[in-house]
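re: ur question from earlier - yeah i can do the single chain one, its not a big deal. heres the input i used so u can compare w yours
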Amino acid sequence: MELKQVIKSCLKNKSKCEEAFFKMNYGKLMAVSLRMSPNRQIAEDLLQDSFIKIFKNINNLDSSEPAAVYSWCKRILTNTIIDYYRKKKTFELSFDDNFDIDIELNDDVSYVESKNLNSNTIIEAIQRLSPQYSLTFNLFVIDGYTHQEISEQLQISVGTSKSNLFRAKAKLRKELETC
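and the output i got, formated as tokens:
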């Protein structure tokens, strides 16, 4: 069935079309949820919460182009994940006594390529970061948010966003060096 028709049927609460829409988007959205969540169970829960919001607000979807639909769904998922972390109030800057300030992750892509790391290894390393580091890293490096946008979304200062990113990269480098 064509995406446009599936969306129209979802507007009429047809469960088979909602299931088809779910299957069309599950894989890509689950990858995002896994990357931004501390573990698989929470990732699944947050994705489920997001799909509830998606179906509740599908009338606000103004395009049936696959890229636009994915982008819209991803935005809902990202906001759901941010809300989850806000409720946990885990965005204060935390200082780690074992932090080594000299480690930097400058050339991210070439470093990952040179180590021949697979995506599961990288996702697992990101999941082991503290929530504030993981979410800042994901929003900045992977989703392309600016520090200003991150500070507004997470209700932290721009400086805290920059510091969290720096520390996330340092911890990731240290973690990935052992792989």
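Residues 66-88 form the longest helix (23 residues). not sure if urs matches, ping me
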